[in-house]
Structures are given as C-alpha cells and as structure tokens.
UniProtKB/TrEMBL annotation:
Organism: Nocardioides hankookensis
Signal peptide: none
Superkingdom of this protein's organism: Bacteria
The name this protein goes by in its record: VOC family protein
CDD domains recorded: PhnB_like (cd06588)
InterPro entries reported for this sequence: Glyas_Bleomycin-R_OHBP_Dase, Glyas_Fos-R_dOase_dom, PhnB-like
SUPFAM superfamilies linked to this entry: Glyoxalase/Bleomycin resistance protein/Dihydroxybiphenyl dioxygenase
Domain Glyoxalase/fosfomycin resistance/dioxygenase: 12-133
Length: 141
C-alpha cells in the first residue's frame, strides 16, 4: 500500500467556497461532507452545513483536503495553514496553477527564473493560504 502526505487546510466558514475555487483551478474530483451529514457532531445548528471534511483529488499524487473549524473550537487566534508547495517539471500546468490560484490574492514573489535555475514564485490566495510554486529547470518569465 502506498503512503501519501496530504495538505489539510482549515477555514472559518469558507471551506466549501475555497475548495470549490481550488477545484476550478486544479480540476479533479471534490468530495464534501458536512457536519449535518454526520449527525451534527456537536456543532450549533447554524454551523451544521459547514464542511466537516473535504477532499480534492486532482491526481494520484495531488490531493488537497480542507474543513471548517467550528466556532466552539479555539485556534489560539487566526487560523494559520503554513504554506503549500507545488513543484515539478510540468511548466504548463504549474504556471497555470500559479496564475489561477493567485487570482484575487497577492503575489509576494513573481513566478520567474530563480538563482538555482528553476522558476519560482510565491503568493497568498484570496483565502489567506500561502503557496509556493517551483518549476524544475523552467525557462521562466
């Protein structure tokens, strides 16, 4: 059996919107389960339709998961998801993902030739998630 490492993002009442956006850019199959689907799971009725778990399966090697954090769960402040890194040698796919996922967000490092020979860029998407894209040996912009 294979082993996978899957990024799992947390949101406050934006998981469905964010995961649907990611699917619109990355493609793939999105499966969503709400708290209501699982009998409420102890969340207030007003949050029953929030996402308890979602999985976006883009390919055998790309899967992104996400959920809404219910209001009663203390996160110690703002939700921080770290950074998601996309990398490989498919310049067309990765540069397209950079463009699509950064739409409505803010680019912190433009996708261009890096000192190590690859193309690299960073951005924060419109949901506050930080992304890094590294294209191996790409010509750059």
């Amino acid at each position: 059996m294979a082993t996978y490492l899957n990024p799992y993002l947390n949101f406050r009442a934006q998981a469905r919107e964010a995961m649907t956006f990611y699917q619109s850019v990355l493609g793939g199959q999105l499966d969503v389960m709400t708290f209501a689907d699982q009998g409420g799971m102890g969340v207030p009725d007003s949050e029953a339709d929030l996402v308890m778990h979602s999985a976006l399966s883009v390919s055998d090697s790309v899967q992104l998961m996400g959920a809404d954090v219910p209001s009663h769960m203390d996160t110690g402040g703002d939700i921080s998801n770290g950074s998601i890194s996309l990398s490989g040698d498919d310049e067309t796919a990765l540069s397209g993902w950079f463009t699509g996922l950064s739409a409505g967000g803010s680019i912190t490092v433009p996708l261009e030739k890096a000192p190590w020979g690859d193309s690299f860029g960073m951005f924060t998407d419109k949901y506050g998630v930080d992304w890094m894209v590294n294209i191996s040996g790409a010509a750059g912009s």
